[in-house]
């Protein structure tokens, strides 16, 4: 009797493992834990590699994968997933970004965020290494006049208002705005080179 039951269970498992992603998503939506198990087994290895390659920290990678699959199970009723692979990779990427935001110090994160503002481009996915960006940003700022770089850092990285910068540096608000405009123009031009290299 036991062997017969085991055989049936194995046949059911084999049947599930052959199902395409869209069927597994539908079964998951209907509370099927076996479908969830197959999705986990099918994607865990690839997603873990992707996270670990991005972060390089085993514990963080494991935590992100745990959070990803926990979220997938907890939201199974409300998520109508069209393309499972895309859904999992986009969700994973978002969790990686969240992890990086928490780990980077505030100033570094503001600089990374600034890249998107300065460049105003739809192709920001191509940025592969924020260290390259930070290095380039600092080199560009170092090449600017001291006052322009200082005003830019205060305004865009430290998020100090124009009025406060004016008071602290003892220059007019118009002068502050001039330095901000000048620095943004330089950064836009110089980051085009950085962008084409990546």
UniProtKB/TrEMBL annotation:
Keywords: Sigma factor, Transcription, Transcription regulation. Gene3D superfamilies: 1.10.1740.10, Winged helix-like DNA-binding domain superfamily/Winged helix DNA-binding domain (1.10.10.10). Residues 139-182 form the RNA polymerase sigma factor 70 region 4 type domain. It comes from the Bacteria. Residues 40-101 form the RNA polymerase sigma-70 region domain. NCBIfam families: sigma70-ECF (TIGR02937). Belongs to the sigma-70 factor family. ECF subfamily. This is Sigma-70 family RNA polymerase sigma factor. It comes from Aquirufa beregesia.
